Give the backbone structure.
Amino acid sequence: MLDPGDRYHTRAAEFYRRALSQYTHLVTTNLVIAETYTIVRRVTSHQKAVAFLTLIEQSERVRCVWSDVQSEMAARDILRYCNDQDFSYADAVSFALMQRDGITDAFAFDTHFRTMGFSVFPA
């Protein structure tokens, strides 16, 4: 959403606007924020990466769930069990937290969420 040159920019921005009207809140993790900050910083600028952090911090609709020992241990189990997949550690923690909290929908362009049985949007 922060990089107009990204191939998913338009779809992401449109879906994000719709999602804010459809869901009471959106959930992300501290590990996803860390990954996103790093990617935004690398492909755009420090200014846009910090703007992303500010957007998350100031949002009343986006909630950050922090990984904890239990979720990280569950993520490691997922990584061990799904040894034929190339899931990132951050993805596995997201899967564990989503399973724990009963979250079924993912705002992602990553097919790994679909592989794990979540509904992925935008389709």
Notes: Residues 9-121 form a domain with the Rossmann fold fold (CATH 3.40.50.1010). Residues 26 and 62 are 5 Å apart (CA to CA).
